[in-house]
Design a protein that fits this description.
The protein is mainly α and 207 residues long. It is built from 11 helices and no strands.
């Protein structure tokens, strides 16, 4: 599934990007970065995929790094919204953690091309933009950590190392973007359900 095809899934992930030319360039950049890597991709590559001239790219984005930052910011905002929605939702700690993992994994599978760029090109950002994205990652970490702590306090979970377990949960979920294949045997929903169950086992959730 390409980034262009991913825009037809769920909630139009780049719908907030306007005008249309800017959105097309963003979709093209996602595809190019996922296929070739950030450093091997040129602005000419991106413009060509979008059916535009290289000069047209600079009307909307000053640099290639600005494009990556826009992609990364939107993706990390979406990730944080998914986790916070579940964390602030109803139910026990186990129910909320399962909902968070299910939705988080489903997004990384359904939008695996985009998610690979969002999650694995952090080091290509400039210092200021990297600091901004790291702060968002810490908020995502806090949302998961708080749910696990809630479960420990309520006696639902048996977790001797909450920070380490939080890292393991997030790493497990994010890695789905690296290996997920639409031609595989499981749908994004099925992978989400599987991982939710695995995470509840990881934290020793009481049945």
């Amino acid at each position: 599934m390409s980034a262009a095809e991913e825009t037809e899934v769920e909630d139009q992930p780049w719908g907030e990007v306007t005008p249309d030319a800017a959105r097309r360039l963003l979709v093209a950049a996602v595809e190019a970065f996922a296929e070739r890597g950030y450093h091997a991709t040129t602005t000419r590559d991106i413009a060509g995929r979008a059916g535009m001239s290289p000069a047209a790219l600079y009307i909307h984005y000053k640099t290639k790094e600005e494009l990556l930052h826009r992609i990364s910011r939107i993706g990390h905002d979406k990730a944080l919204t998914i986790l916070r929605t579940a964390a602030d939702g109803p139910g026990s700690a186990a129910e909320r953690l399962a909902a968070a993992v299910r939705s988080f994994v489903r997004w990384h599978a359904a939008h695996h091309t985009t998610a690979r760029v969002v999650q694995y090109e952090l080091d290509a950002l400039g210092d200021e933009h990297r600091t901004e994205i790291v702060a968002l990652r810490r908020q995502s970490d806090a949302a998961v950590r708080d749910m696990i702590n809630d479960g420990v306090r309520a006696g639902e979970f048996d977790v001797p190392d909450v920070p380490g377990t939080t890292l393991a949960v997030l790493s497990l979920c994010i890695d789905v973007a690296r290996w997920f294949n639409v031609a595989g045997h499981r749908t994004p929903d099925e992978v989400g359900a599987l991982y939710a169950d695995l995470v509840l086992r990881m934290v020793g959730a009481q049945k």
